[in-house]
Known about the structure:
By secondary structure, this protein is of the alpha+beta class. Helix content is 55%, strand content 11%. Zinc ion binds at residues 42, 44-45, 52, 63, 65-66, 68.
Amino acid sequence: MANPPFFPESFVAQLKDAVNLTTIVAEVVSLKKAGRNYQGLCPFHTEKSPSFMVNEEKQIFHCFGCGLGGNVFTFLMQYHHLTFPEAVSELAQRLNIPLPRKGIDPPAAGDQSLKEQLRTVQTQAAEFYHHLLLKEKIGQNGRDYLRIRKMDSRIAEEFYLGYAPEGWDRLVSFFMRKKVSLSLLEQAGLIVKKEKGGYYDRFRNRLLFPIFNDRKQVIGFGGRALGQETPKYLNSPESPVFNKSRVLFGLPQASQAIRNHKQVIVVEGYFDLLALYLHGFKQTVATMGTALGAYQIRKLHGLAEDIVLLFDGDPPGIQAAMRSIPLFQQEGVTSRVRVLPAENDPDSFIFQYGAEGFSSELEQAEPMLSFFFNQHIKSVRPRVEDQARMVERLIPHLKVLTSEWEKAHYVGLVSQKLKIPEGILWKSLNKDSPGAKNKGRIEQSLQEEHVSGIEWRILEAMLRLPQAVPLLLNGGKGDLFESPEAKSIYQLIREIYNQKGELDISLLMDRVENQELKNRVSALAIRAFIDQKDEKVFLADLSKRVHLRALQQREKALYEEIRSKEKSGMNEELKVLLARKKDLLQKRKEILTSSTE
Ligand SMILES: [Zn+2]
């Protein structure tokens, strides 16, 4: 049973009654109504046309691109990398439903409980630092610095900023009073072990930016030095809960605005983000001083169609912009790029030119590929060998373009700017063109899923048509099942139907343990019939097949009997059997020629 040793199924059911899968998914995927389903870009794989579906009525989802499917717990588990008990307690927390007394975190939960403990101490540390910044005399340094950077207390509260004062053991003694294990704090990266024993605080005289995960728990910090400390920016080290290449600073604060604007602006610095936020551009996130990675790009792609990357107007800014583009290409995601005028970063720019000036910069953001090719071409000296070398460098970037239109456009651009005939470029391009087709993916996948085996047809009928469930559970149809997977689903459906008087598909999802099987079930369940006529045809066709299958099984048994009688020369009995065989063949013929209408 997939259900947890720790939570009673009634509690899990209570949670599911209280939540709507569509709402949970819509927090991270922009969904559009499509027939009876909602449709969006899959958050689990990279795609350009939406193949991710949510069915509100059945409370399940399925992606026809990567095949993943399930219910609200599957979604939370896959998206936030949680175990089932974690997903349950996460949902309970969000819904403000108290956990049953024998909750999770038994001592044996090992690794998971460590992660939970790490997030707890990070959150406690954030509270401690935040309080010092806003309320305590010792936080004056931090407050002064915020004023210099023209930030107000509203921003400090919104982002839960903190101040780590000077001194070596402020945090150490705070947690010692709370009797929290110091080695846990060390694992969280909050304190550092001294060579001669004992610990000291990692962050001293720094303004702190807590980093939240999607579940709004603190998982790490970034710290800006307020004195001469180096480095100027110090981040928490990697830990079991903190991975710099996966987080985007400011995402929880930005997510609502990102959905509203259908746009996400990506900047490189904490203060860039705060400055834009202060001026009303709340749809902004920041990287943690590293180039965007594949995971972050996929995440951004799931959040908004328009991704704008904003870089400082100096050579390192341009280099950073150029480095990010191939990664987007690898992931098949497009974005727009804007490098600010020389000597400006987003922070200084918006204070100098205001929201209007910034808006016009945003508008001028250029498709990433056009930026990419133009920058490359700009740097070439007008010498034949340099140009030839540049063509060599650009060919791979042209090759990966999947849209023929885009390819033609950029081949034209490169040809014109480098004064190289288009024909030559096309020749090098077509040596081995990728020619990936994305179109018709759903249809194709539907056809693959459209299983021919009678077992899966029966399951499909039960998953899609409530009236088919009692019909197909009767009359020994379970005997028709030969595939063990299909049989196990059939038995689970029977169990649920007997228990609840109807088929609760979301509950079925909890009981199917194997994720592959879950995917298959969600694929079958999520499609709806277009009209009632189709339903009828489908059911009639199915009952015909069921009959045929039953006949086949009887024929098979009969043949074996006949063969054994033939061997032993029992002629009278053989005659009876042969007559029965004729009978069966006749029946089969009747079924096959009957109309399904
Ligand atoms: Zn997918």
